[in-house]
């Protein structure tokens, strides 16, 4: 009897583990597909509308306007209380990083082919491992470090053989990748410390980044847009 019960529990645990693996794989594939589509569409827009800061601000505005009502409709749990000290110490820098990473990501796909920008973004695990070690003191296994070697070699080969190579595009892609890696590291800490829902955190960061960098957009793009006949007309 006990043996049968143990076998049943083990079978249930195996099914749960398999389901979790399939869910993670599905989410990874879905994320890559959405990210790739977003970059392709972004490339098409930037070819006709070369204003990456404006594109970033529109993206942040969309998050600010649409996310709140959608999350309420979807039943995503409300905000949690976050102290002002913690807010300024981690949330504000996260919002700053979100804007910077998004701007440089748009600049990269504007300057270089989407395929090359995505190749450079493949270095994100490298950035994450290094920054986690420096900031959080996390140590990885030797196998993890060795698994990063093919990534470095692959990006190096892609850079040397890229016909449309652009220094600004490469640097922008690297800065964006590093910025997104920092976001992942500190977002994980915020989620752990505060218990805020990850989608609500996205809404908070998008809204805060929008208002923080509105003056930057006015200075960088607004007056240029007013003078651009192709946009005004």
UniProtKB/TrEMBL annotation:
Residues 24-223 form the Sugar phosphate transporter domain. This is Sugar phosphate transporter domain-containing protein. InterPro entries: EmrE-like, Sugar_P_trans_dom, TPT_transporter. It comes from Rhamnusium bicolor. Its main location: membrane. It is found in: Membrane. The keyword Transmembrane applies. The keyword Transmembrane applies. Keywords: Membrane, Transmembrane, Transmembrane helix. The chain crosses the membrane at residues 21-41, 53-74, 86-109, 115-132, 144-161, 167-187, 199-220. GO terms for cellular component: membrane. It is a multi-pass membrane protein.
């Amino acid at each position: 009897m006990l043996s049968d019960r143990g076998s049943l529990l083990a079978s249930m645990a195996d099914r749960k583990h398999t389901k979790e693996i399939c869910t993670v794989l599905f989410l990874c594939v879905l994320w890559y597909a959405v990210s790739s589509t977003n970059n392709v569409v972004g490339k098409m827009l930037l070819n006709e509308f070369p204003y990456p800061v404006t594109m970033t601000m529109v993206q942040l505005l969309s998050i600010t306007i649409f996310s709140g009502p959608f999350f309420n409709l979807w039943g995503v749990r409300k905000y949690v209380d976050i102290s002002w000290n913690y807010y300024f110490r981690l949330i504000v820098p996260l919002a700053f990083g979100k804007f910077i990473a998004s701007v440089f990501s748009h600049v990269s796909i504007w300057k270089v082919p989407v395929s090359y920008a995505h190749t450079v973004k493949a270095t994100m695990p490298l950035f994450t491992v290094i920054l986690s070690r420096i900031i959080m003191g996390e140590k990885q296994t030797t196998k993890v470090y060795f698994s990063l070697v093919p990534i470095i070699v692959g990006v190096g080969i892609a850079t040397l053989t890229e016909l449309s190579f652009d220094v600004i595009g490469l640097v922008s892609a690297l800065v964006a990748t590093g910025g997104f890696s920092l976001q992942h590291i500190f977002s994980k800490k915020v989620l752990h410390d505060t218990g805020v829902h990850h989608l609500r955190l996205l809404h908070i960061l998008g809204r805060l980044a929008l208002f923080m960098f509105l003056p930057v957009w006015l200075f960088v793009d607004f007056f240029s847009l007013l003078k651009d006949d192709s946009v005004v007309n």
